[in-house]
Amino acid sequence: MVEALASLAQETRLDAFRLLVKAGEDGMMAGDIARRLGVPAPTLSFHLAHLSHAGLIACRREGRSIIYSVRLKGFRALLDYLVEDCCQGRPELCAGVLVTCGTGPSRKIRPCKPVPAK
Question: So what CATH class is 2-94?
Answer without folding.
Answer: mainly alpha
